[in-house]
Amino acid sequence: MVRSVGINILFVSLLLIGCTTTDNSQTIGHDTLQAIEEQSKVEKKDLMIQSEETRKNNINAVDYLLPLENSKPRLETITHVMVHFISNAARKPEDPYNPDDVYSIFEEYGLSAHYMIGRNGTVFQLVSEDRVAYHAGAGELQDYPDYTNRLNEFSIGIELLAIGTREEMFPAIPVRVYNVIDPTMIGYTDEQYESLNALLNDIFERNPSIVRDRNHVIGHDEYAPGRKADPGSLFEWSKLGL
C-alpha cells in the first residue's frame, strides 16, 4: 500500500475546513477559512516540489512518506550519504522484502531513512531531504569530530532491501532463521545497483555540498564499526560510479 501525498493533503484540507465549518461556524469567518485553504495549497505545492526533485535523471521515486515524527527539520548542510541494508527477515524469513512490512518497522521503532530501494530497483522516498532522518545513530567519522553521534544532521540515508552474510546478520537474525532464507535473496540485485547509481547522481546534482567520493558516500559499518554491519561484505562498492 503506497501512500499518496496528494490524497493525504486533500484529506487534511477537507478535514480542517469541515471541522471549522461544523464546529466553529460561529467564531471563524470567511478570511480564516480562506487562509486555511491557501496554506493547504502552499503545503501541497511544497510536497509536489519535493517529489519532483527526485524525478530528475529518470528517478521515478514512489512517495511513501513516513510520519513527520520520524524526522525533524534540517538545519545543517548535507555533506554525506550513508548506505544501509534492511529487511523483515527476522519476522518473515520466507518473505523478507515486503515494503509495507519494512515501513512498519520504521514506524514501530521511530526510525527512518530518506530513501528505500526495493529488490526490483523501485525507489521509495520515505523522508524529504530537507528533513533529518533517523538512520545513522551513534558513531564517528575520521576528520569530522563535530559529526560524532550527529551524522544524521549532515547526511542522506539510503536503505536497500537486502540481507548480509550469516555472521553479519547475527544476532538480529538467529542462525536457525537465517538458514530458512532462500539463498537467492541474500545480497543485492543488479536492479538495486542501477537504481542506487541513478539516485546518487540525482542527489549529487541537487546537493553540490556532497563530494562525490568514498569519503562522503559511506556505509553504516564505517561510521559505527562493531555496532553495525550494513551494507556488509556482499555490497560491491566497485559497482558505484564514485
From TrEMBL:
<protein>
    <recommendedName>
        <fullName>1,6-anhydro-N-acetylmuramyl-L-alanine amidase AmpD</fullName>
        <ecNumber>3.5.1.28</ecNumber>
    </recommendedName>
</protein>
<keyword id="KW-0378">Hydrolase</keyword>
<keyword id="KW-0479">Metal-binding</keyword>
<dbReference type="InterPro" id="IPR051206">
    <property type="entry name" value="NAMLAA_amidase_2"/>
</dbReference>
<feature type="domain" description="N-acetylmuramoyl-L-alanine amidase">
    <location>
        <begin position="66"/>
        <end position="232"/>
    </location>
</feature>
<keyword id="KW-0963">Cytoplasm</keyword>
<comment type="similarity">
    <text>Belongs to the N-acetylmuramoyl-L-alanine amidase 2 family.</text>
</comment>
<keyword id="KW-0961">Cell wall biogenesis/degradation</keyword>
<dbReference type="InterPro" id="IPR002502">
    <property type="entry name" value="Amidase_domain"/>
</dbReference>
<dbReference type="GO" id="GO:0008745">
    <property type="term" value="F:N-acetylmuramoyl-L-alanine amidase activity"/>
</dbReference>
<dbReference type="InterPro" id="IPR036505">
    <property type="entry name" value="Amidase/PGRP_sf"/>
</dbReference>
<dbReference type="Pfam" id="PF01510">
    <property type="entry name" value="Amidase_2"/>
</dbReference>
<keyword id="KW-0862">Zinc</keyword>
